[in-house]
Write the structure tokens for this entry.
Amino acid sequence: MADTGFKAGLEDVVALTSDLCFIDGKEGRLVYRGYDAVDLAEHATFEEVVFLLWHGSLPDAKTLLAFQQELADNRTLNPSVSGLISWIPKNTPPMDVLRTAVSMAGVYDPDADSMDRAANHRKAVRLVAQIPTMMAAYERSRNGQDVIAPDPDLPLAENFLWMLTGKRPLAQHAKALDTSLILHADHELNASTFSARVTAATLSDIYSAITSAVGTLKGPLHGGANEQVMRMVDDIGTLDNVQSWLDQAFEAKRKIMGFGHRVYKTDDPRAVVLRRISQEMSKSEGNMDVFERLEAIAAYVGDQKHLHANVDFYSGSLYRMMGIPIDMFTPVFAMSRIAGWTAHVLEQYDDNRLIRPRAEYTGPTHLTVKPVDQR
Ligand code: ACO
């Protein structure tokens, strides 16, 4: 058969050009629009990073103030979307609620009928602003608690924790969540972003593109891994149990969640920062149990399988200390990655070509149809 250049899983295939995000998988560097994500995590806020991804430069103080205000002013959900969140079955996984709520928000968006650039930017603002409100509302509603209205005076990360828990979060927690949101904001052509761009490239609307992306992020090989890591840590239970638990998983050829990456062949720079924050927060909490278990898992998997921890490995430990339940971890990822998804969709619309690859056909080619009674 002629060489079609087929690569399983599209590994290392360059599918498009983009100005948004660069990953150096050998050096372990992640760059948004020229800035190192670790530098941004230390010196910028999530709102500044959203602006950077959309507009290509960091905002000055006045522009930032106006942008923060615009995001804060758009946090309230359409009553029909709030209604959906209140009546959807309480055992629905939060990622399914998010996928449904995002799709429904598209129906009620005041710019639903417009594909012009300014309208698409306004829709992107609403998506970034409202995903935290959707998720906090669902968490409160499924627990029979009153839904808390967004506080326009709080930054996005802090406001999410407020709406979720009904308590003003510790400064350390608000800062840690903001940092985590920055580190998850974009990651080149990861699976969910690719989904979003494929949908946008048909000139379908931005809500359809983001609905595709949410569905893709949900899978345990992608964003869903952060939830599975914490379930593994709980299942392992004690430090003594780490090696035997992992040996059994290796024996059964099960993948260890939170390890390995298609692009990074060294430390994932996001995991390095999240590890440090997890350690600091655990110290502040006065409880190192989970962190120590994570460290023991990372050491043993590194030693036995030569795999590095990825972004999903430490994030859950932070989220749990903030009072976020395990099945909300992947929605928190979406709350951040919506920045990158929308930036990619806007970039796709600006210079669009339908994304339509080929398949290498491996089936028969010359069968003939027998009448049904002779098959
Ligand atoms: N545990 C055990 N073995 C692993 C792991 C892992 N986490 N990751 C990779 N390997 C092994 C595979 O079994 C395979 O071994 P083999 O060649 O002997 O069969 C080899 O390493 C290559 O793995 P692939 O799955 O082919 O690598 P791919 O690039 O397709 O997948 C992925 C990357 C999906 C991230 C993979 O490493 C994985 O499944 N990790 C666990 C899930 C996870 O943490 N996902 C989050 C990724 S980050 C993100 O999406 C935000």
Q: What stands out?
A: The mean pLDDT is 97. The domain at 225-321 is CATH 1.10.230.10 (Cytochrome p450-Terp; domain 2).
